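Training component of the fellowship. As part of building independent skills, the fellow (R.M.) carried out the full modelling exercise for a liganded target. The chosen ligand was 0O2. The inputs are recorded below so that the supervisory panel can assess the work.
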Amino acid sequence: MDLSSEFNKDDKISEFMLKNEFAKQLLEAQLSVLIKEFEYKNHYNPIEHVKSRIKSDESIRDKLKRKGYEYSLENLKSHVHDIVGIRIVCSFLSDVYEIVDLIKNSGQFEIVAEKDYIETPKETGYISYHLIVNVPVYLNKDTEYIEAEIQVRTIAMDFWASIDHKIHYKFLETPKDVQNDLYACSLAIKALDNRMNQLNEIVHKYD
Ligand code: 0O2
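Fellow's submitted model of the complex:
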């Protein structure tokens, strides 16, 4: 990703975005080692896939606007907590909590905030587990703590979020019946995740 061209309007913002890119790389490496160690110890891989991204300039501007703030370095730092985003997608519900505990108990990450949208889904029906962590980045003889959002969810939750995202892009304002349908699908997904988890426990009993 060529960050310099997208963010070169403001040197301070460009430098901040570069630090975010470094934070993403550091976090990816730390998580990868942590997950590989877990796999080695438990002879089990709980991860379907991991995706990471830096939030685009357009999406940052949209988010600030949505929250009622103007585009500035200060507001970026104070109000956008997911410029660095890592998404960990697991097969089963129990894997999600296993991964969350692994990250929290590793002692490697400073957890700034934790949002359990599995226990308490958002009013849209969105289900996922979010951890906001601080990543120390050393640049220009200075250490800055960069926030990153780690989303942990099942494949089914990921499927729902991806469709929901697409629908919200299509409509300026999502029609009420579509919103209701999405909410019903979210309930179905929660029930499905619970049943799949129970099946997985049965399979493990026979292992
Ligand atoms: P994008 O385009 O996916 O990056 P706060 O932390 O309270 O100041 P914030 O950051 O909105 O506010 O926190 P929240 O609600 O935990 O959401 C952060 C991210 O979770 C969102 O980033 C989405 O990625 C995801 N998310 C939250 N709610 C929904 C939802 O209803 N549907 C879908 N599909 N995803 C959701 P962005 O920047 O909103 O979007």
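The panel noted the following from the submitted structure. The pocket of 0O2 is lined by residues 55, 59, 63, 81-82, 115, 122, 124, 126, 130, 161, 164-165 (CB under 6 Å). The radius of gyration is 19 Å.
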